[in-house]
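User: Hey, quick favor. My workstation is busy. Could you predict this chain's structure for me?
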Amino acid sequence: MVRVIGVGLIGAGWIGRVHAEQYQRVPQLCSLPATKVKLRAVSDVVPELAQRIAEDFGFERRYADWRELIADPEVTLVDICTPNILHREIALAAAAAGKHVFCEKPLSMSGAEGREMFEAAEAAGIRHMVNFNYRRAPAIAFAKRLLTEGALGDVYHIRGGFTQDFAADPNLPWTWRFSKATAGGGSISTMGCHAIDLARYLVGEISHLVADLTIVFPERRKKEGGVAKVDVDDSAALLLRFAGGVTGVLFTSWVAHGRKHHFEWEINASRGSLHFNSERLNELELYEASAPNDRQGFKTIYLGEPHPFGNVFGLKAGMGIGIRETFLLQVYEMLRAIVEDSPASPSFYDGWQVDRIVEAAQASSERRAWVSL
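Assistant: No problem, here it is.
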């Protein structure tokens, strides 16, 4: 008997289109035994966006109200690609209806909301995932393997950051991203959630932090005229201490001229170091302290067939994949969790923990003090 997973997409903007594309590609590249993926329905507050994505990707139905989509009996997986403020309400409604949920990052607006969403999903017995897609980059998955195997010994510290320049223009109009009431946070939430999740994923739980969040442009002009206050950070600097004694530094900014999509981190440990730069997505730099003095230095590992997910694309080392393929692998893991009735990862629990850390960083910056988690 063939199982059908009916996808309902809520939010038909840019990120919704990226998700829709992957549901089409997954059956072509990944094994889902006796399973068909059907794009059942799409919903968006802008009818033209919903119509366009339905026509481009073959969604069977369109709904003006996302509640109608959740009520559709042929929708078994709800994919949330809306602004942050709507994540909680939609996810709770989907869980109450017994629908599996794949939610864009950040999971929610606060630690309390994230916890509520996680507990509701667990109580409903559904599969749930938050889209921290960098976990699916082969270089990062391979770094995780090396660390888990103990190849680098004891980790000392992690340094990293996520910088962009899309908001560096002071004349950029105000949007929902510049309001805490609709976004939950600024650069620390939009990009920092990836950096925080990777720090947890690779090193472990964060126990204490101190943070400094900065607003560079306190006002933005409105498209309709006038100005609006900005009450979320343009940049954030975090000093971290992990439960195992590891220390860390993270930095985020969306006003960093010249940085288009720059996610970089380095881990230093007793036997060596690892370095990753998203601008060279298919490379991982490894330093092995045991190398002879005349051969020391970082070496570049080109990711390919021998590495995590290498069998999916059949590419030789050095050929490389793009960022969209990390979304594809994330969607595949979500679908596989449904098929196998097994926990999905990263789950709403991971999203909740990141939300807690973002909230703690905001509190630390306001108090000018260390915060315990």
